[in-house]
Amino acid sequence: MSTEQAGAWVVLGGVHLINGTRPRAADDPLVLVRVAPHQEAGPGTTVVVRWADLGPCEAVARTADGRLLGRVRVAGEQLFEDGFAGPALRPLVGSAGSALVPLCYLTEQPGGGYHAYAQIRAHLDDACFVRSTAEPVGHGEVDELHWLDGALTAHQQFVLPLGNHHLYFRNHFKGTELEYKYTLDPAPDIWEAGQEVLRALRAGELPGCRPEYREDFQIWYYDNHLFDVLGPEPARGYASFIPSTDGKNILKRKWFAEDSFARREELTHGVDVAPDGYADHLTRELGLTVRAMPPFRRVRYDVQCESLRTGHIYGIFFDHCQLLDAPDVVLSQCEIEYLRSRGLLDPEEGEVVAEMDRVDAWVRGLLADRGWAKERTFYSKRSFLRDVVAARPELEPGR
């Protein structure tokens, strides 16, 4: 390990080193750009590097067999120009014979060696990397390139998810929804509320987390025709039809007897049934005993929160549900939900929920500070509609 302060590097090289379009050669140029470490402690899962934030950097170019090509100082935003090496690097790498790309991000480890983070997204202004090494590789000075074989081997081990957009995402609770809820009373403007949370995430107010890389905010607006599933007993919960743009429907099923944190969930796309046939589809096709609930329109703004340490991604949703036949009846909620995980390595057991609790505690404090909500609940749309019908029976469909 270097006697200098532990460091981090963005490594540039020919794209063939990761896509295999031509063999690796001894004279392939590699450029090691020293950067300030992007993680406070420990080997995390995700690193996002914005070129303009790097400032002046020291870049060292060597061939794959270790021959020094030269050194240069270059501003981060000048490393690349339209996907090619910037002018300051061209005298060092010459004609590389393959597009020079961010290959990986390296972090020097206290016990020696380096963790490698494979590049999964590269853009004009930034790049995203995900850790591919379970253990540090390549002890020795970074310029000696002892880490190179280990980093490229790790990349090949995970070549399928790394080489295919979004296949590095996994869901550790597939088929199960994990969700906390807060009823917003008085209800804020949910657009402003969502943007305020997003701004706080961008400012680093939740340590170790940031808005999800290039997927930080989503807009949803749709009608929902929900049926209370009363039986058979194992199927209790609800079934709802969400009309889609192709004239068909998404059928959302949730299984639960009482409102709770974890619920089985299933979405079926392309259900071809008209609104007047929703109930018949559930009873005749699926064998369910159902009770129609008042249909509502849901407007929802989603803030996507990503942990750089673990790669887990959580949704912070602000929604406004308004009955179609009684617009004065509204439920506004904030929901915190586990969505998916960006990563190649297996997580520690139980860390998803533990980290979700940390996100939830941060959101709860933010909601309480603004007077929007204080108490966490599991209050579902089904319970809300049951309460509405109990208070105003005339709103039950068919009455």
CATH fold naming of the largest domain: Hypothetical Protein Pfu-838710-001
Could you name the CATH class of the largest domain? Mainly Beta
Shape: elongated
Number of E strands: 21
Please summarize the sheet with the most strands.
Answer: 8 strands, antiparallel
Unreliable parts: none
Mean pLDDT: 93
- Assembly form of the protein: single chain
Integer count of domains: 2
Helix content: 10-25%
Pattern of helices and strands: EHEEEEEEHEEEHHEEHEEEEEHEEEEHH
Structural class: alpha+beta
Evaluate the radius of gyration: 26 Å
- Beginning-to-end CA distance, first to last residue: 76 Å
**Which strands sit side by side, in order, in the main sheet?**
3-10-9-8-1-2-4-5
The helix count comes to 8
Strand content: 35-45%
> Mind telling me which CATH architecture of the largest domain this is?
Beta Barrel
Fourth-level CATH superfamily of the largest domain = Hypothetical Protein Pfu-838710-001
